[in-house]
Amino acid sequence: MNSNREPIGVIGTGYVGLVTAAGFAELGNEVYCIDIDEAKIEGLKQGRIPIWEPGLEELVARHRDRLHFSTDLADALEHARLLFVAVGTPPTYSGDADLSAVHAVVDAMPASDAHALVMKSTVPVGTGETIKRVFAEQEKGFRYVSCPEFLKEGSAISDFLKPDRVVVGDDGDWAGDAVVELYAPLEAPLVRTDIRSAEMVKLASNAFLATKISFINEIANVCEETGADVVEVAKGMGLDARIGPRFLQAGIGFGGSCFPKDVTALKQLAGNSGYHFQLLNSVIEVNELQKRRVLAKLERHLGTLVGKEIGLLGLAFKPNTDDMREASSLVLSARLQGVGASVRAYDPVAEEEARKLIPRGVDFKSSAAEVAEGADALVLVTEWPEFGELDLAELAATMRGNLLVDGRNFLAPERVREAGLVYEGIGRAAGRAVSYLSEV
Fold it and tell me: Which listed residue, of 173, 233, 297, 381, carries a Cα 20 to 30 Å from 357's Cα?
């Protein structure tokens, strides 16, 4: 770690901001973290981390002398010339990104030729040019750099310290040079380009990965009709270097803070520009329908779901995070209750966040065993590692029914059947074992 590295500011202490701050602290930077949420800042000063991300709490604790938390923007401006912007840009009702927090940051900046905004938040293509125009009109002199983040929840610390690539979009001035220098110790492939192209890299990357997921889910649905096994199909596809194995795991749809938002944002961006992005419309539609196919599987085995007790194993949109944004469990629990089923659920980490978003009436349990007791069926929604270690025979013995719907193709079908349960996967052929699991 280099003590000669320059101090930086990070505006926004949410998921991206806090991971970015902790990552740069690990590299030796003094980091001044700014947020308007006084309670959050006070908690961070006391060592309380507002999100659940493996390794983050330990990293923040290790570098608490380098991490400075404040609600006053002046604290960052005084010490740092590079201000990383990591505020939320959620979708609006129209599907466009809500840039109100970004514009609030821009408006709060003083006139200065010695500072630069470095945009980490995911923004529509053209946002950087708009901000530069505002700076010029207000004669603020601020420089601007686009440096999109590629952090995956559940592995964000590793993603920061060992990135696939670093993308820097700038005007070829000192600010871009300084950002490149900040990331130099990571020795990652560098894409230094114009601002618009950098903005597009993030949206296009996530849209392509989402397309890959929807594609393999469509293949899974065809496999169910033809008797093929999507796990074997994905294995055969993924060994082709042109395709690759990742994001080829069929399931009940993608969620989270990035894929749904970024796919919709790119579709909207294209529409606003006069181009109809037909492929992304299908990607979104397939993903929504995939979440609802679970009900058809349940009804095929149980008949009417009125009065049935359905247990959900996992609620977060993926394992190793407490993020519930666009989680499949939200749609599934609402639809189940809508058709008259009773829903009970367990998640090892995400219950607190789930209670804020999940429909009323869901019975939260403290273990998978409690979910199984008296249930007519279980649905594995999130592939938490602990679910792979369950004693399925013990669960089966306490259930009223015997159906397990594996929404992530996480469990070996023969192991489920040996426990006395009926196995129903996504695109799985009867009697075949899991021989391949792609990374997601």
Answer: 297
Q: What whole-number distance in Å separates Cα of residue 264 and Cα of residue 96?
A: 8
Average model confidence (pLDDT) for the chain? 94
Residue 147 is among the residues annotated as catalytic for this protein: no
**Residue 429: is its pLDDT beyond 80?**
no
Domains in the chain (CATH in brackets) are 8-193 (3.40.50.720), 215-424 (3.40.50.720)
DSSP 95: S
Identify the CA nearest to 168 among candidates 138, 136, 202: 202
User: DSSP string covering 161-227, please?
Assistant: HS-S-EEEE--SSHHHHHHHHHHGGG---EEEE-HHHHHHHHHHHHHHHHHHHHHHHHHHHHHHHHT
Where does the pLDDT of residue 2 fall: very low under 50, low under 70, confident under 90, or very high at 90 and above? Answer: low
Residue 10's φ and ψ, nearest 5 degrees, are -130, 120
Is 308 in a helix, a strand, or coil?
coil
Which of 33, 147, 223, 258 is labelled catalytic? Answer: 258
What residues form DSSP beta bridges with 313?
A: 346, 380
Q: Is 412 helix (H, G, I), strand (E, B) or coil?
A: coil
Cα separation of 353 and 425, whole Å?
27
Cβ–Cβ contacts within 10 Å for residue 418, how many? 13
Instruction: Tell me the two tokens of residue 301.
Output: 């085995």
